[in-house]
Amino acid sequence: MNFSEVFKQTNQLCKVSPDGKYLATCVQYRLVVRDVSTLQILQLYTCLDQVSHMEWSSDSLFILCAMYNRGLVQVWSLEQPDWHCKIDEGSIGLVSSRWSPDGRHILNTTEFHLRVTVWSLCTKAVSYIKYPKACQKGIDFSRDGRYMALAERRDCKDYVCVFVCDDWHLLRHFETETQDLAGLEWSPNGCVLAVWDSCLEYKVLLYSLDGRLLSTYSAYEWSLGVKSVSWSPSSQFLAIGSYDEKVRILNHITWKKITQFEHPAIIDNTKATVYKEAEKRPGVGSDEMPLHNITMGATLFNTQSKYEICPLPVQIPVVKPDPDRASPKIGISVLAFSSDSRYLATKNDNMATAVWVWDMQKMSLEAVLEQTSAVRCFQWDPLRPRLALCAGNTKLYLWSPGGCVSVQVPTEGGFQVQSLNWHCSGDSLILLGKEQLCLCYMDTDQEDNCSPDKNM
Amino acid sequence: MGEWWTTETSMENYEISSISHVTMSPSRRNNLVSMYSFPLSKSSYSVISAFCTEDNIPQCISYINQELASLGLSSTCIEAISPGDTGLSTVPALNAMYELLQIHRRSMCNLEELEREQLRKSSTLEHIQMSNTRLKDQLELSIREKSGLHETERQLQLKIKTLQSCLKTEKDEVQKLQSVIASRASQYSHDAKRKEREAVKLKERLSQLLIDRKDKKLAIDVLNCLGRADGKRRHWKTTKATSSHEDEMYKSLLSDYEASQRSLMLENAELKKVLQQMKKEMMHILSPRQPSTRGATADDSQEQADLDGEAKGGDASRESLDQYCEHAREQLTNSIRQQWRKLRNHVERLDSQGTSQNQLESNKEVIPRETHEDEMERMRCEVQQCREFIHAQQQLLQQQLNTSFDDETAALLNDCYTLEEKERLKEEWRLFEEQKRNFERERKNFTEAAIRLGREKKAFEEDRASWLKNQFLNMTPFTHRRRYSSSDGQSALSISNGKIPGLACFQTKILATLCMNILPRQFLSLRFGNTEVASFAYLHPL
Fold first, then answer.
1. Do you know which InterPro entries this protein is assigned to (chain A) (predicted)?
2. Contact residues, chain A, for B268 at CB < 8 Å
C-alpha cells in the first residue's frame, strides 16, 4: 500500500472523474484538476467565491462548481480551459445544484425549495419544476440516466413526478400514500421506485416505473420508523434500517420481509467473527533506539493498532441517546451493499464504534468490527468485496472476507481521516481529512494482518 | 366360704390369718367385699363364734388384746374377771367394742366418701373423655378447614402474582407508549420549529425583496453552446415523442419482467428436477426391500404395491402433463410428501428393530451390513497399501539421504558422475570445434567463390557490354562521326557533348538504359562511372 503526499482541500470537496482519470479538488475558491496516477496539476480554475458543491459531469468533460452564498454556478471545461459558463440564480437564491445524467443540463434548487430550475447548456433554455419537496432525498436519477423521480408537495399531499431526462417530459405524476414523504430511490434496474415516509411513520411504498403501486411495507406502528434505505446492486433486495436498531430485508419478487437483522448489545450464539481494535502502545521509555523514536516524530503520538479476534460473548459499548431530542442517535443510519450484493455493512448509531457486516447468501452475521473511536465513514470497493472504513483518527481500516487490517496513514502532523472514497477501479482510495486529502494506492494482492483462519 | 369352713378346724394361726385376710384386704375387691359385707359378717360371726370356745378363752383374750394394741387402743384391755374364769370384765370389753364400732363407723364413712369420690371421679373421667373425643373431632375439622384455607390462599397468591405481572407488562407498555409519544412530540415540535424558521426566513426575504426592488434577474452566461452528449440534434417536443417515451418505458418494464420471469422459470425447473430426483431416490431406497422382506409386516407389502403402482402410472403421465399445471404441481408435492413419510416410517422401524432385536438376521439388515463390511475391508486394504507405499518411499528417501552422507561412496559416485559428464563435454567440444573449423573453411571457400564470381561476372558484363555496344554501334547511322571524337577519356562526355551533344546524350541515355536493364543494380550503382568511362573508353577508340 502506497500513500501519496498530502494536498490541501476545503469543504471535503474532492471527487474523481467518472472515467477515473482525473481528480478534482477545491481549495478555497480555486478548482484544481490533477491526473490520478501522477498527481500532477493539469488545470487550475478560479471561481468567484468559495465553492460549496462540486460535481463532475457524467462524460468527465465538465465540472460544476456551485456557490450557494452567491447563488452562482460556474461550469468549467477540461478540454477547453478558456470555455466558461456562469449561471446566476438571481435574488431567488440557491440551495442545491446538480448535473443531469446526460451531462448537459444543470438542475438548481432555489432557496426555500420554491422551484427547480433546469438549465440547458446546449440551448441556454430554462425550464421550471414547481413545488419540489424539501426532504431528505427529493430527487433521484435512475442508474441508466433515463428517468428522474422528483418528490412534490402540493396542497398538503405528496406526489411523485417521473421525468424523462431526454427532453424533461413529464412521464408520470401520481400521488403517494405517505404522510410526509422523506425520500425516494430507484432500484438499480430502473423499474421500481422505493418511496419512504418520515420517521414518524414506518411506511415503505414500492411503485413500478409506470406509477402503479406494487406493494406497501410497514413493520410496526407508532414508534419512530425508517432511518435509511438501500437497494442491493442486483435489485434483488431492499434493505430498510429503522430506529428500532433492526434492518429488514425485502425481496423483489413478493416484496415481503425475508429476514431481519438485529443489533444486540451482547453478541452471542453466532458464527460471526468479532474483530476488536487493540492499540499497541510503543514503549516510550524503552532502551532500544530512543533516538530512532524521537526522529520518527509524529509516530510517537500515533499509536499503532491491530485487530484481535474476540471470543464470544462480546459486549459492544452502547451510548444511550437523549430521549427528549428529535432525531435521536439510535437506529441504523448507514446501509451499504457490496458490489456483488454478497455483503451488507450496517452501522447502528447507538453503537457508533461498531460496523456490522452481514452475509446475504446465508442471511446471517459475518463479522463485527469494533473500533476504539466512533466510525466516521465506510465504503465498499466498487469491484471486490472489500470494505474500507475510517474513524476520525490517523488510521485506515480494511475488511475483506479473508481478514481485517489496520493501516497507519504515514503523514506528518497527524492527518485525521474524516471520510473516504474509492476510485472507480478499486485500486486506490481517496482519504479526506479536515483540510487535507491523501491518496492511498492498493497493492494488487492483499495483506491480511488478522485472519480468522489463523486463530481457528 | 366353703373353704373357710374346712380350714376353721385347723390350727389357730391359720384361722387368725384367714380372719385377718377377710377383714383387712385393702384391694379393689373390697368393693365387692363391702357389698357382700353383711352376709359376710354373718358368716364371719359364725367364724368368730368358732374362734373362741370355752377352752381357749384366755388365748382369745390375749390375742384380742394384741389386736387392739395393734389398732392403737392400748388403753382398753380386755381382762378376764378372774383367771380361769370364763367371764370377761364388761367395762373394758364394752369400751373396746365401742371403740371398734367407732372405728368401723369411721371406716364405713370413709368408704362411703371414697366411693362417692370414686363415682365423681369416674363421671368426670367419662366427661373428660367425651369432651376429649369431641375436641379431637373439632381439631380434625379445624385442621381440614385450615388446609382448605391454605389452598385458597395459595391460589389467591398465584392469582395475585399473575395480576402483578400483567400489571407490570401493562405499565411497561404504557411507559413505552409514553416514550413513543414523547419522541413523536419532540419530532413534531422539531419539525414545526424548522418550518417556522423557514417561514420566518421567507418572510424576511420577501420583505427584503419588496424593499430592495432591485430584482437580480437570473441569467446564464455561456461562452458557446455545447453540443449534446450523444451528438444528436435536439428534437421537437411532439406527441409522437411523448408516446415514444411511453413505449420506451413500457418496453423497459416488460423486458425487466421477462428477465425476472425467465430466471424464476429456470429456478422452478431446477427445483422440480431436484424434487423428481428426490422422489426417485426415495422410491429406489424403499423398493429393494420387496424380495428380501419375508418377515416384514403386512403394510410393507401394501406400500410396495403402492410404490409400484405409482412408479408405473405416475411418471409417464406426469411428464406428458403440462409442467406448469397446478394439478401436476400438487400431485408432485403430494407424492413427495407421501414418499418422505414412508421413508421416515421405514427408518423409524429400522431404528426400533435395531435397538430391540440385535441378533435378528433379517435380510434387509444383513445386506447393508455385509456391504458395509466389504467396504470397510476394502478401505482397510487400501489404507494398508498406501501405508506400505509411503513406508517404501520413506525408506528409499532415507536410503538416498544415507548414501549422500556416506563420504566414500558418495565421493566415488560423484566422481563417476562428473567423469562421465566431463567425457561427454569433451566429446561435445570436439564436435563443436570440428564443426567450427568446417564452417570456417566453408565460409572461406564461399567468400573466395564469391570474389571469383564477382570478377567473372564483371568480366562477363564487360564483354557483354562491349558486345552490345558493338551491336548497337553497328546498327546506328552515326558510326562515322564517332571517329572524330577525341580519345581523351575524361573529356569524352564534354567533347561529345560539345560536338554532338544530342547524340552523346542520346547514346549515354540508351546505354544507361541498356545497362540498367541488363546489369544488376548493385553493379550499376557501384560502377556506373566506371562502366561509362569504360564503355566510352571502348567507344572512342573505335
1. Centrosome-WD_assoc, Quino_amine_DH_bsu, WD40/YVTN_repeat-like_dom_sf, WD40_rpt
2. none
Taking an 8 Å cut-off on Cβ atoms, the answer to whether A169 and B218 are in contact is: no
| Closest Cβ–Cβ partner in B177, B183, B227 for A328 | B183
What cell does A305 get? 493498532
Give pLDDT < 70 ranges for chain B. 1-49, 74-87, 214-215, 228-237, 288-325, 358-368, 403-407, 410, 476-542
- Residue B337 C-beta-side C-alpha neighbours within 13 Å: 6
* Count of alpha carbons within 13 angstroms of residue B270, beta-carbon side: 6
Tens of pLDDT along B210-266?
887 766 777 778 777 777 666 666 666 677 877 888 898 999 999 999 999 999 999
Give the pLDDT score at B445.
92
The C-alpha atoms of residue B31 and residue B181 are separated, in whole angstroms, by 100
For chain A, what is the mean pLDDT?
88
Which residues partner with A307 through β-bridges? A277
- Write the Ramachandran bin of B453: left for phi over 0, alpha for psi from -120 to 50, otherwise beta: alpha
C-alpha cell at B542: 573505335
What average pLDDT does this structure show over A83-97? Answer: 89
Residue to substitute from B218, B232, B234, B264, interface A, most A β-carbons within 10 A? B218
- Partner-chain residue, chosen from B218, B249, B250, that has the shortest CB–CB distance to A88: B218
Task: Give the closest-approach CA distance of B338 to chain A in angstroms.
Answer: 29
Interface check A199 vs B, CB under 8 A: yes
pTM of model > 0.80 = no
* Sign of torsion over alpha carbons B339, B342, B346, B348: positive
Residue B34 is predicted with a pLDDT of 47
What is the rounded CA–CA span in Å between residue B402 and residue A34?
66
DSSP category for residue B82: S
| The three grid cell numbers given for residue A313, joined into one nine-digit string | 460473548
Q: A139-141 and A147-154: which strand pairing?
A: antiparallel
Tens of pLDDT along A285-343? 444 444 444 444 444 455 778 888 888 888 888 998 887 788 889 999 999 999 999 99
Cell matching residue B533: 568511362
Nearest Cα neighbor of B350 from B340, B335, B358 is B358
Distance CA A87, CA A73 (A): 5
DSSP A119-157: EETTT--EEEEE-B--STB-EEE-TTSSEEEEEEEETTE
CB A399 within 8 A of CB A377: no
Between vectors from CA A17 to CA A15 and to CA A21, what angle results, nearest 5°? 120
Chain B residue nearest residue A244, CA to CA:
B180
Task: Establish if A79 touches chain B: CB-CB under 8 angstroms.
Answer: no
DSSP code string of A158-199: EEEEEEETTTTEEEEEEE---SSEEEEEE-TTSSEEEEEE-T
- B223 to A83: CB separation less than 8 angstroms, yes or no: yes
Is-cis flag, bond preceding A313, omega within 30?
Answer: yes
Q: How many CB atoms lie within 10 A of CB B168?
A: 10
Interchain contact A116–B (C-beta under 8 A): no
Per-state percent for chain A, helix, strand, coil, to nearest 5: 5, 50, 45
| ipTM of this complex | 0.77
CB contacts, 8 Å: B249 with chain A: 147, 171, 209-210
Spatial distance between the Cα atoms of A419 and A152, rounded to a whole number of angstroms: 32
Q: Does A81 touch chain B (CB under 8 A)?
A: no
Task: Please count the CA atoms within 13 angstroms of the CA of B284 that sit on its side-chain side.
Answer: 6
Q: According to the 3-state scheme, what is the secondary structure of B165-176?
A: HHHHHHHHHHHH
- Check: CB of residue A96 under 8 Å from CB of residue A108: yes
